[in-house]
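Protein record

Derive tokens from sequence
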Amino acid sequence: MTPRLSVVMIVRDEADLAPAFLEAARGLWDELVVVDTGSSDDTAAIFRDAGAQVFPFAWTHDFAAARNESLAHATGDFVLVLDADEQVSPEFIAECRAAVASPGVGAVVVRLSNLLPYGHRRESWVLRGWRRDPVVQYRHPIAEDPSDGVVKMLAARGLTLARLEEPVEHLGYVRTRDAAKDKRERHTAMLRQCLTDDPSDFYSRLKLLELARAWQDEAAWRAEAQGATEAIEVAGRQHLERQPWGGELIALIVEGLFPPTSPAALLFLEGWAPRLVPSAAFFHRRGVCHEHQGHVEKARADYTACLTTGEQTGDLQLLSVRPRLGLARLALAQGTPPLALQRAREALESGPRDPEALLAVASLTRHLEGTLALERWADQQQELEPACPERDWAIGEALISAGDYKPAVTWFRSGAGVPPGGPAALRLAQALLGTGQFQAAEQLARQLVETQPEAGLGVLIFDLAAGRDTCLELELSAETANASMKQWVDALIASRQRSFVRKVRARIGAVADLFPWLTGYLLKKTA
């Protein structure tokens, strides 16, 4: 008998998205369970007319409670969790139904393809389906997680975790920066309330650290890391000893408090090592610290441990792509570039659209085999996947890093989308500057300032050349600002437009307080 699949959802005011979701999901579910947390539009009616069972549920500011309510109403053999802003394809439906029908598969992770502005995508792997079992329940009011129960269920039944390769398209990231900030503030407030209710809720502290990392907010990251450290000392280390995410929390604390070159980082990690459930996050952070401090064999051991932890519901990037890239860097540091390229290719096989893996393969191919070899590799990749902004950005990076600004323009333009946006558009502006296309570079830089703050440093360069005052407030750390300014200056020098360079150099004193190294850098580069 074919197992029955229950798709379970929580919704609120999704009337705009519901029809497209239902059309795309036709043929996926045997049962559709929808928990409505307080819609004021036609959401409930739309789902009910499509054959769903719709249950009202009073919102309690607890995502886990709402998710568990949806699980309570499911009757199928297998449950799959989806949201209204996610769309499946016929290929996904076929792959999912095959996994459900396989008796050895107990749970599935889904490739969530997040549609970003300007046509870019970011992919992540998320645990979304499992054999229905009362032991599987969501935990934590925000950033709700069912993995503890899934791990227990898989072990008890002797079942395995499968990976569904066909992506699920997530539309929720197509939003303005202001909307994203609002969401961050809402989530932060909910997590703070969790800590008010229970100061030893270290999962909420983990999520606060993840928010700071996602926003690259170094001050918040350090503050959260310090707060978590103090809370652990008060509550006792035993609170983390059996938690599968304990290693991730410690890794984020260390990353927030110490540079990887600091011996204190390793001391902190070693003090926790015997107490934690082995995790890829912990091994990777310790591997990075060993790598930066020149402990090659220890770093290699940690990266290898990432590949062999056996985590079933962890971060697949940390279980495959990141450690292989670490091994590639170690090979490069030891003077074996061909081995580094091999390891980078292995990382790319694990994450075909991973930007860091794409960049490593593109850069090493360009370095070892030349521009023609890079072009051949690019042609092969385009045959496999004609549209891939991450690849196009990576090829542009490999070229511009080698000083090949002209061909980089073509690849960055392809990766930036229409209208141009994202990191590829920022680098496109710099590549345009490097080829002497000043007007186009300045126009693009000014367009990007709101979404790519580093573009403001390009605006500063053009204003210096024109003798104009610049009035910009940029959300940039000192490290990011310095690195980006060097990229703009390198592009300026690559343009070989001496009169333009002289104008900038003549007025460089106006920003000496912000970039005290800049005068010397320009003199050295133009000597």
Remarks:
- Residues 177-197 form the longest helix (21 residues).
- Residues 143 and 207 are 7 Å apart (CA to CA).
- The beta strands are 5-11, 31-36, 53-56, 78-81, 86-87, 105-115, 121-131, 160-170.
